[in-house]
Each structure stands twice: as structure tokens, then as C-alpha cells.
Write a structure and sequence with these properties.
Blueprint lengths: L3 E4 L17 E2 L8 H15 L2 E6 L4 H14 L4 E6 L3 H14 L6 H12 L3 E6 L12 H6 L7 E6 L3 E4 L13 E6 L6 H9 L5 E5 L4 H5 L4 E7 L3 H9 L3 E3 L6 E3 L34
Parallel strand pairs: 1-2, 1-3, 3-4, 8-9
Antiparallel strand pairs: 5-6, 5-10, 6-7, 8-10, 11-12
Helix pairs in contact: 1-2, 3-4
Length: 292
């Protein structure tokens, strides 16, 4: 069975890009499900799939986050990964779908969990906003704050992979240098700037529309907005990207990983220059060298 991908909100599950993409499980907040039911549901997921990767936005309410850690602690399971994602809501949903795609590939659960950090760098997530007075996710200058009060002023903002902020008509947002598609969530805005200006400038090859996610107005500080995320849609490209990264063993829990941190226990990967072989006949405590 594929590794289970779980989410903390049902609107983080975007429609699949192909029929083989599995859905994601939902982990309910404490006010929607008692603890014993949450434990039972998670236990079933672990038994059915072997491993569970839960994607948690950094904006997740503290009570919900505590519930997740409580469930993992009571079950005493090292097969549950809790990944905190500092992405806008639509960017989180895109990453969830990409991990759902990869979950049916021949990657181990540890590689899938640690691939989340890698794939985040390839998601360009932002929004068109009619006001930035309550925006605290991207640096906003006092001058920009003042212009936000002018009638008709609109702003283009990118939060990931690097923060950007422009006033529409007075600058351009730097986009990806690789082929992407874009998903758009429309709030209380009638602007078509994202589809008529931004997408062509970024050479987007296809646009999908989605309902605005429930957490998006709070994340961006306004409901008068259009949220967008440009992403790699092709499963073969995602596969090659993840497969091209060297795989390691976590020094703490022993699970397979890519990158510099384990997705399950969060232990950092020890740099090669700091790895020392035990002293013995063939070794005198010299640093281990990378495999050829």
C-alpha cells in the first residue's frame, strides 16, 4: 500500500491530476473528534499503509497541533511524520497533491516525507491583494502600507520561494525558470490580472481554478484577493527530481531520507566531515568519506 498522506483541513485536498492519484486522509481538530476516535483512526491508517505523513500548515491552531503530537505520543509510533509547512494555504494544497502523486511511486516513506522540503522550493505561491494593511507574512514598507489606502490600488505578492511585493502597474514579479501550471483560488476580487498578465509572463502552460481555501483570507490578511500557486504538474518530473537526490539513513531512527533532515524524527543529517569511523584495525577514527 502507498504511504498515507494526511491533511488537517478537507480543502487542502485538490482534485487529482490523474486517475491514479490517491486522496488524502483527514485528521480532525479536537473540537470535531474526541481523542479516542482520533487514536483509532490514526491506528487504522498506520496498520493499512505502514506509514503516515501529516502535512501541517504553520497557521494550524495550537490545539490542533497539540492533538497531533498527543496522538503520535500515545501511540508511541515512529511511523507518523508531522511536517510543518511555512507555505500559503494554496501552496500547501499543491504540495499535498504532489506528495499524493509520489506516494504511489517506488519511494520509501522516509524519502516521501523528506521530499516535502525539496518540493517546496519549486512552488511559487502568492496572491493578488487589494490591501496589504494586515499582511504580516511578507515584509511591507511604510510607504507601501500608505499606498494600500488609495482607492483601486492592487498588489502582487509572492511568499514562496522568496518574498516579493509589487504594486500592480509599477513592477513585475519574478517567476519560475521552468515549465509550470498554475492553480488559482478566487476570493472577493474581480481582477483578472493573475490570468491575463501574470500567468503569460511566467509562461504558465495551464491554469486550474479552485475555491478559495478557508484559511486563505486569514493568512493573507484580506478576503479581497486572488490566490495563486505555480507548480510542477508532471509526475515524471517530480519523480526524477526526487530520485536524483542522494539517499541517506537517518542517524537517529534509521529511516531512509533525502536532504539534510529526517521527516519522521526531525533529526539533522550529520555532515560527512563529522562522521567518524570507530577506531579499529582498519580505521583510526578518520572521517568517513562519501561513497563513490
Amino acid at each position: 500500500m502507498p504511504t498515507a498522506i494526511a491533511v488537517t483541513s478537507p480543502d487542502l485536498v485538490l482534485p487529482p491530476t490523474d486517475p491514479s492519484t490517491p486522496t488524502a486522509a483527514l485528521v480532525q481538530p479536537p473540537d470535531a473528534q474526541p481523542l479516542d476516535a482520533a487514536l483509532a483512526d490514526m491506528q487504522v491508517l498506520v496498520e493499512q499503509h505502514g506509514y503516515v505523513v501529516v502535512l501541517c500548515p504553520t497557521s494550524l491552531p495550537l490545539a490542533h497541533e497539540r492533538r497531533l503530537h498527543t496522538v503520535r505520543g500515545i501511540l508511541e509510533s515512529d511511523r507518523i511524520a508531522l511536517l510543518k509547512l511555512d507555505l500559503p494555504p494554496l501552496g500547501v494544497a499543491v504540495l499535498v497533491r504532489q506528495l499524493r502523486q509520489l506516494s504511489i511511486c517506488d519511494f520509501s516513506a522516509g524519502v516521501i516525507a523528506s521530499a516535502a522540503r525539496l518540493l517546496t522550493h519549486y512552488i511559487h505561491a502568492g496572491a493578488l491583494l487589494h490591501s496589504v494593511t494586515k499582511l504580516d507574512r511578507v515584509p511591507v514598507s511604510l510607504k507601501t502600507h500608505a499606498k494600500s489606502w488609495l482607492p483601486g490600488t492592487q498588489f502582487g505578492v509572492v511568499a514562496n520561494p522568496e518574498p516579493q511585493l509589487i504594486r500592480i502597474g509599477a513592477g513585475e514579479l519574478a517567476g519560475p525558470d521552468f515549465a509550470t501550471q498554475m492553480v488559482i483560488g478566487k476570493g472577493q476580487s474581480q481582477s483578472d490580472w493573475v490570468t491575463t498578465k501574470l500567468a503569460p509572463a511566467w509562461q504558465v502552460q495551464g491554469i486550474q481554478e479552485s475555491a478559495l481555501l478557508a484559511d486563505s483570507p486569514r493568512w493573507w490578511g484580506t478576503a479581497k484577493m486572488v490566490e495563486f500557486a505555480a507548480f510542477l504538474p508532471d509526475i515524471s518530473v517530480l519523480y526524477q527530481l526526487v530520485a536524483s537526490v542522494r539517499r541517506e539513513k537517518c542517524p537517529w531512527c534509521g529511516i531512509e531520507l533525502i536532504g539534510d533532515r529526517c521527516g519522521f524524527c526531525s533529526a539533522p543529517l550529520v555532515p560527512y566531515e563529522n562522521r567518524v569511523r570507530p577506531a579499529g584495525v582498519l580505521s583510526h577514527g578518520t572521517p568517513m568519506q562519501p561513497d563513490s
